[in-house]
Design brief:
Helices cover 5% and strands 45% of the residues. The protein is mainly β. The strands form 34 sheets. Strands 6, 8, 13, 14, 15, 17, 18 and 20 form an eight-stranded antiparallel sheet that branches. Strand 4 and strand 5 (77-78) form a beta hairpin. The protein is flat and about 165 Å long. The chain starts with 8 loop residues before the first strand and ends in an 8-residue tail after the last helix.
């Protein structure tokens, strides 16, 4: 809707349905609940705003509408037909006819402020410590408020025009900072303005000429709050701003302070603001054509100069916006505004309206130039002292102006401007130019100078005020009315004169109850805060006078008479509410009258008996409703008292509710009264409960034609009307969408209407049947009785109904197949033929004939319904050990089963496939069978475990566990069977599981050879056997030795299939059978667990850990072993034969990946990083050789072999792919501070080699590789710490969010987060650096170098960087003024040349060198200044450096006292002007001692003796120095 196009909006309300239609196309609907079919417009109709209406449902922050409306029709009545306000009927505020151009103004279009009350408010200028505002303006106004933005806690930023200059002000926490520009802007020319402030500085720039001032240091930054005012203020904000003492805002009134002129290009923080963004605008227009000042125009005022928005619509000016005069005619008429005081009069003279006819040779006399008034002034009149005929024509001549006959008289209204239109013509009969023929209208503007009028005080309702005895009476503007057109009402105050009878009562303010007051403001009166409190005598009076701060009003006397009173409940209508709803108790339902009239006394209602079916509730300060026992009439009037129906059960009868109460007013209590409450009880009506008909499988929709409920008494929407499921259906599922409804599930009438409820049967109905579910209706937490819904099933007559329950048969047995186990049928009794498509695998189907056994048939392929019904079909199991069987068949309809039944047309194709599953109950019918039958060998008088290798049985029954076979032994002639864990416990029975777990031990005792009987059973069947025991000395025998066949140069595993031994000793584990290398192979090696070993065990053989590795030489090999079992040894030789393939293929390198290693740590070469394969090789055949070892580490094997401890040129490391796969090859990193390494491999598969396999190694540093970069910052400025300044260049640290910790903070600044600018940081994160949130802030000192030390830390990796120091170069800003540190009076000798040193005159500047400090001086009054090198040449300026070097001298001439004025500058800043004083004295020498000196030749007189030689030398030296000093003018102290 905010596209500046016209839209048609229609809002319809019918019953409880609401519909909103936009442009006849877009429609949205809704429903209003609560049963309120009629809308009551209690507070009226509001268009485009809520006009201060305070109701709970209104959002106070919602702004008023800005834009254009037309044809606003409510129920066929045009609302905006008239825009006049009618008291009590219609109020119109800031609405005008027509659609203003400002709504269609573009972003770059200027804003024209043409009234003294013009202003625009924009959304808040977002300021968080820093802000920038830019715009251009054109004005001739000398004084006005230009911009105002308020902040929190009374802070503000203002920009105003004062005496034609811009002045910026920032108010913060009782401090006030001002900054003025030096450029005049009130010259009707365009000027570009920029206002910027930070936490420390305020900058104002006009046309690229800027000024700056320092802001006071604050603990909190400036934070904006509220809208941005441009051009002026509204009344409310004006009252606030008056207290700030702005130069452009009068303390008396904030009216008339607005800016007049044009403004464009407004940007706040670089965001454009135009009229389309405005929140409020007043007296502004789009576009700007202002060319000159308001009061001076040397030429005619055309319509380009006239602000047409101030001209009433009745003014008829053709073609508004275009000039009326053309070319030369534009210069004949000169108009200057007339100024008149409010309510006064002023003479209209030729200097205001002058026709220049000198340039026209027309011969016209001033009396012939006629000014005819086309339209008289609106706020005054013209008094013309001319002839009656001329007065009738409302005209005057140029001569009348010169003779003072035309006066303008103002009517005293408050309008700041008036005007009248006129035309100019000539009485001369000659032909005149077009502009003197009276056809062109002109506008003359009159400026009204406001005059402060005193307020006028009235008593509209009379001077007698009746109050109730001992009560309070609110004083309102209807009782005491003050008017002052030129003063804002909130600035008016009232004074109570004299000492009115305090015994009768007093005035009080609700802000200080009980305290008498002698004055109050119009605001307090308007807000209803002022009361008269009666306490004694009946008669009293109050003398009142109003003041606007300067002038006082007339005095009025208000007489007060207290009268007795009583009250009664005048209105007690009761309320009507729906069950479960709420209803407000309003003034129209319950109110009290005092003495038969409405009153304002405090009235309270105390509930003595609460309602039975609900609660009386009052709305609290947080808008929550709570049950109360008392409430006030004020709460009722404010709509804060309600009755809430809480009864949640069905009410079968129309009973009513009520509550009883008493009224208390000022201590008077009424009798108990009853307030009736009518409740519309909720009733449920089940309109439709039609059974659902189900004729086929699949979901069936349940819609409103099947189930529909409604309510009576209470309006309940379909969405709020619910069904609660008590018992779900049994033969199907009830669903809402795809969700199955269960017991206590809920669905709504809306779900039914939206076709979301469905019923899904579990299976096809075989016959006509019925399903049901029980439910009840729920609304407003009220439940109905329970109902039953039925679902009727109608079976499909032609659908095949299959019975297939499977078969259960005993192993080897048979089973008759009956109709209850397998059958196909239809409801129309079709007959079926069954064709077997897959026969059973572990049995057969046969047809039997018990009456004629010869008629039986085996392995049938088809049968009929009659075969099943006649119980002739049988399945016979084949007695195998199988538990499951199955067969497949196709049942096809062959025809009607009864005579007279018509066959369906589709019966030809009526068939179905059936799979019949058969479960076989196995029986134990097999005896155990011995599978290991050996002689048991044992050491004489020794013992040995009896295991499955010596004795083992198997039970052919498939479902039997062989471990459960039970062994029972009889007597043993030569020993016993005992438990292996307890030799004292003899075993007579044990299970085969005990043999497997090594729990049965045979102990020899007696003969060397014997047999004993063992009985074995599976629980049903028994078998017996003999176990022969053979006793001998301990031995070890070779049971198997096949030798090895190995591919040339390859490996071959040696396992128990190649080599095994037997023994009669008690060997519990395979580790006890050991093999030792007696003679190693010549052409290979024997490896155990991939390493050379000279021994291994039988366990290693079984696990495949023993490998023969061929070295590629010879066609055969042999190695000899010694077998050791306990203390018995036997030797064995293993023969090895080699073979080679005729076709050799190149090894392929499938995988080479870069290794990643931590600095100083090892890493494995795993299969995932290096893989070489060959189609005919095993991994151990791929041999890798290191050709170029790594530079910054070495390779080693975790289980080192000979010659493979490292990698160097002499002994290269060799390993296999198997070593890599097993993780036995490691790269060990050694060299510090390296980022990458590499090494070169060669792989050989026995015949061919692959060269140049390069393995790259990325080294992850032990420390975080932090690199820093120095940076430069301006003095007092800040610089973001970018990623370039704190760089971690290693790719393995790219995603690591580490911390940067300041080890040594800056000395002349600090590090801060831009979100928390005043917090000094000692650490920050890498992510904050990436987001450019971290800044270095210089402390504005004059130090040009700074540094801080930092290191990176990652707690995730447990790593840190080395400390790094960042050096900061500070670009000096010359912002300090020189300071005079020494200025002493210089004392010189008369007519001397004296050096001026830094002890006499010195200036210092923190940001400037002595060479840059220049003294500008006036000529001294008693001499001149010069350089020591040219003392005769006078100079007017010099530097501090010249003083410091002793180059500046003063040459005295003339007066004894004098000096010079000087000022020191650093080229930009100046020190205050000072005076350097110089005084001179005359040099006088006198001889004080002149005695004769007597000495002996060649003698030396002692020190201190008169005339001694030492004394002479001292005197000679002394006078020499005196003479020298006097030459330089320093003889002070000698006379």
């Amino acid at each position: 809707m905010d596209d500046l196009d016209w839209h048609l909006v229609e809002l319809y309300y019918v019953k409880n349905n609401l519909s909103l239609v936009i442009d006849k196309q877009y429609e949205t609907t809704g429903q209003i609940t609560g049963g309120m079919h009629n809308l009551h417009f209690q507070h009226g109709i509001y268009i485009a705003g809520h006009g201060g209406l305070d109701m709970p449902y209104l959002d106070g922050e919602l702004p008023n509408f800005r834009g254009c409306m037309e044809d606003v029709v409510f129920n066929q009545r045009e609302i905006l037909a008239s825009l006049r306000s009618y008291p009590g009927f219609k109020k119109v505020y800031e609405v005008s006819l027509g659609c203003n151009d400002e709504f269609f103004a573009g972003e770059d279009e200027a804003i024209n402020f043409f009234s003294s009350r013009s202003y625009v408010t924009f959304p808040e200028w977002k300021v968080q410590g820093e802000g920038l505002l830019e715009f251009a303006l054109q004005t001739g106004t000398q004084q006005a408020l230009l911009l105002f933005q308020s902040g929190r806690e009374g802070d503000f930023v203002a920009l105003e025009i004062v005496n034609g200059l811009l002045k910026a002000r920032v108010g913060r926490s009782k401090s006030n900072t001002q900054l003025s520009s030096f450029s005049l802007i009130s010259d009707n020319k365009w000027h570009i303005i920029q206002l910027k402030f930070t936490g420390r500085y305020l900058d104002l720039m006009v046309n690229e000429q800027g000024v700056r001032t320092l802001l006071p240091l604050q603990s909190q930054p400036f934070v904006s709050e509220g809208p941005l005012f441009v051009g002026g203020l509204d009344n409310r904000k004006g009252e606030e701003v008056k207290k700030l003492e702005l130069a452009s805002v009068s303390r008396k009134s904030a009216r008339g302070i607005s800016f007049k002129g044009c403004l464009r290009g407004l940007e706040t923080n670089s965001e454009k603001r135009a009229l389309k963004n405005a929140l409020v605008s007043k007296d502004v227009a789009a576009g700007c054509k202002l060319q000159s000042s308001d009061n001076e125009n040397p030429f005619v005022m055309t319509t380009e100069n006239l602000l047409w928005s101030e001209i009433p619509l009745s003014t008829t000016v053709p073609e508004a916006g275009k000039p009326f005069l053309h070319h030369a005619s534009s210069y004949f008429l000169s108009l200057n505004n007339l100024e008149v005081q409010e309510g006064g009069r002023a003479l209209l003279e030729q200097r205001h309206m002058n026709v220049d006819v000198a340039s026209e040779d027309l011969g016209i006399h001033p009396s012939q130039i006629l000014f005819k008034i086309e339209e008289m002034p609106l706020h005054g009149f013209l008094r013309i002292d001319v002839s009656p005929a001329q007065r009738m024509e409302e005209a005057f001549t140029m001569l009348d102006l010169g003779q003072g006959k035309v006066w303008y008289v103002h009517d005293g209204s408050e309008e700041p401007r008036d005007f009248f239109t006129f035309s100019v013509s000539s009485k001369n009969k000659k032909e005149m130019p077009l502009y003197l023929q009276g056809h062109v209208p002109y506008v003359f503007t009159i400026t009204v100078l406001p005059v402060n009028d005193p307020p006028v005080l009235k008593l509209p309702e009379g001077n007698l005020l009746l109050v109730f005895e001992n009560s309070k009476k609110r004083l309102t503007p209807n009782i005491i009315h003050v008017s002052d057109p030129d003063t804002d009402s909130l600035s008016l105050s009232f004074s109570v004169l004299g000492n009115f009878n305090s015994d009768a009562g007093f005035l009080e303010n609700t802000n200080g109850p009980g305290k008498a007051i002698n004055g109050f403001t119009q605001g307090d009166l308007r807000d209803g805060n002022i009361f008269y409190v009666h306490r004694g005598h009946r008669n009293s009076r109050i003398l009142l006078r109003a003041s606007d701060g300067e002038l006082v009003s007339n005095t009025v006397v208000l007489r007060l008479v207290a009268v007795p009173w009583d009250f009664e409940v005048a209105v007690r209508t009761g309320v009507v509410v729906q069950q479960g709803g709420t209803v407000l108790i309003t003034q129209g339902n319950l109110s009290v009258e005092v003495n038969g009239e409405p009153h304002k006394m405090e009235t309270r209602y105390a509930i003595t008996h609460p309602p039975q079916f609900g609660q009386i509730q009052r709305q609290g300060s947080r808008d929550e409703w709570k049950q109360v026992s008392t409430f006030s009439q004020r709460s009722i009037d404010r709509g804060r008292v309600q009755y809430h129906s809480t009864f949640q059960e069905l009410q079968l009868e129309n009973v009513t509710d009520h509550f009883k109460f008493k009224v208390n007013i000022e201590g008077k209590i009424s009798e108990e009264l009853t307030f009736p409450i009518t409740v519309h009880w909720l009733k449920f009506i089940l309109l439709k409960n039609v059974p659902l008909e189900v004729r086929k499988i699949g979901r069936q929709l349940l819609n409103s034609d099947h189930l529909q409920a409604v309510t009576e008494g209470v309006d309940v929407t379909q969405r709020e009307l619910h069904f609660k499921l008590l018992t779900p259906p049994k033969k199907g599922k009830l669903l809402v969408g795809n969700k199955v409804l269960k017991t206590n599930s809920v669905f709504s009438q809306q779900n039914i209407a939206d076709s979301k409820i469905s019923y899904e049967p579990q299976e096809r109905p075989r016959e006509d049947t019925q399903d049901t579910f029980r439910f009840l209706i729920v609304a407003k937490h009220i439940e109905s009785k329970d109902y039953t819904f039925r679902i009727n099933f109608e079976a499909d007559k032609t659908r095949i109904i299959v019975t297939n329950r499977g078969l259960f048969v005993k192993e080897g047995g048979g089973k008759l197949i009956t109709k209850s186990e397998l059958f196909a049928q239809t409801l129309d009794n079709q007959t079926f033929q069954y064709k077997i498509t897959k026969s059973p695998q572990h049995g057969k189907l046969k047809l039997v004939n018990f009456s004629d056994p010869l008629g039986s048939r085996d392995n049938i392929t088809a049968f009929t319904d009659q075969d099943i019904v006649g119980e002739r079909l049988m399945y016979v199991h084949d007695d195998s050990e199988t538990q499951h069987d199955e067969f497949l068949l196709v049942a096809s309809a062959t025809g009607p089963g009864q005579e007279g039944v018509v066959r369906h047309l589709d019966t030809e194709h009526l068939s179905t496939e059936i799979k019949v599953a058969i479960s076989v109950d196995l029986k134990n019918d097999e005896k155990p069978v011995r599978v290991v039958d050996k002689v048991f060998h044992v050491v004489r008088n020794g013992q040995r475990l009896l295991t499955l290798a010596d004795l083992c049985y198997h039970d052919p029954d498939s479902d039997f566990d062989d471990g459960q076979l039970l062994y029972t032994r009889r007597g043993i002639p030569n020993g016993d069977l005992v438990r292996a864990t307890d030799l004292s416990q003899k075993l007579y029975q044990f299970r085969q599981e005990d043999l497997r777990e090594g729990r049965v031990l045979f102990r020899h005792r007696g003969a060397d050879s014997a047999r004993f009987v063992l009985f074995v059973t599976d629980g049903v069947h028994y078998t017996s056997s003999l176990l022969e025991v053979s006793v001998s000395d301990p031995y070890v025998q070779i049971a198997n030795n096949t030798g090895l066949v190995v591919q040339r140069g390859e490996d071959s595993s040696l396992t128990t299939t190649n080599l095994s031994v037997t023994t009669n000793q008690d060997v519990r584990t395979d580790h006890e059978i050991e093999f030792y290398m007696l003679q190693p192979p010549k052409h290979g090696r024997v490896l155990v667990n991939h390493s050379v070993s000279h021994s291994f065990s039988q366990h290693d053989l079984k696990q495949g850990h023993v490998i023969y590795r061929h070295d590629g030489n010879g066609n055969s090999d042999v190695f000899n072993l010694t077998v050791k079992v306990k203390e018995i040894y036997i030797d064995v030789g293993i023969y090895v034969r080699m073979y080679s393939e005729s076709h050799q293929h190149r090894t392929q390198i499938l995988l080479i990946k870069t290794l990643v290693v931590e600095e100083g740590k090892p890493v494995k070469l795993s299969r995932g990083r290096l893989q070489a394969v060959h189609e005919d090789n095993i991994p151990s055949e791929a041999m890798f050789t290191v050709r170029i070892p790594p530079m910054h580490g070495y390779l080693r094997k975790s289980l080192p072999e000979e010659g493979s401890l490292g990698a160097d040129a002499k002994s290269p490391l060799i390993f296999t792919q198997q070593d890599v796969d097993d993780g036995d090859v490691l790269y060990v990193q050694t060299a510090p501070d390296q980022q990458q390494d590499r090494f070169l491999l060669e792989v050989v598969n026995g015949f061919q080699a692959v060269n140049g396999i390069e393995i790259l190694v990325d080294i992850v540093p032990k420390r975080i590789p932090l690199e820093v970069q120095n940076f430069t910052v301006q003095e007092g400025g800040s610089k973001a710490l970018l990623e370039d300044y704190l760089k971690i260049p290693n790719k393995y640290f790219e995603r690591v969010d580490c911390e940067f910790v300041l080890l040594k903070p800056p000395k002349h600044g600090y590090v801060r987060n831009s979100n928390f600018p005043r917090v000094k940081l000692m650490k920050f994160t890498r992510k904050q650096v990436e987001n450019e949130l971290i800044y270095y802030m210089h402390d504005d000192s004059e130090e040009l170098l700074d540094n801080f030390t930092i290191f990176a830390n990652s707690s995730e990796l447990g790593k840190q960087s080395l400390p790094r120091t960042l050096f900061v170069t500070v670009e000096s800003i010359n912002d300090e003024a020189p300071v005079i540190t020494t200025n002493k009076i210089l004392q010189v000798w008369a007519n001397s040349v004296t050096e001026i040193t830094r002890d006499d005159l010195c200036a210092e500047d923190e940001d400037s060198s002595p060479q840059d400090l220049t003294y500008w001086v006036t000529p001294p009054s008693n001499g001149h200044l010069a350089l020591q090198s040219f003392p005769g040449r006078s100079i007017q300026n010099f530097t501090q450096a010249q003083i410091n070097k002793g180059q500046l001298v003063f040459v005295h001439t003339g007066a004894m006292s004098g000096g010079f004025n000087f000022q020191v500058t650093d080229g930009l800043n100046f020190a205050p002007r000072q005076i350097f004083s110089i005084t001179a004295r005359t040099l006088t020498l006198s001889l004080e001692v002149n005695r004769r000196l007597s000495i002996f030749p060649g003698s030396l007189t002692k020190q201190g003796e008169p005339g001694s030689a030492v004394t002479i030398e001292i005197l000679d030296f002394l006078f020499l120095n005196i003479e020298t000093l006097c030459i330089h003018g320093c003889c002070e102290g000698f006379h």
